[in-house]
Specification:
By secondary structure, this protein is of the alpha+beta class. It is built from 2 helices and 3 strands, in the order H-E-E-E-H. The protein is elongated.
């Protein structure tokens, strides 16, 4: 079982999830190890006067990516433990 879990963790590093906020203004790609791979920000949302909004959008997108990554790992763990 321990070997299967270690193998799953390796596989998860190669899988990604994508999440966005603000109607796609901020996009985050995260791997199954919950590492941020990339952040894309629509230039339309970059405005010094609205930096608080941009920060909120980034936080929301990262949190959604974390949720999706966790969900992906949970589903994969169910497959291993169901055997």
């Amino acid at each position: 079982m321990h070997t299967k879990i270690a193998q799953l963790q390796e596989e998860m590093a190669g899988k990604t999830v994508e999440a966005s906020s603000g109607g796609g203004m901020v996009n985050i790609v995260m791997n199954g190890k919950q590492e941020v791979i990339s952040i894309r920000i629509d230039p339309e949302v970059v405005n010094r006067e609205e930096i608080d909004m941009l920060q909120d959008l980034i936080a929301a997108a990262v949190n959604e990516a974390l949720r999706k990554s966790h969900e992906m790992m949970t589903e994969e763990m169910k497959k291993i433990t169901a055997v």
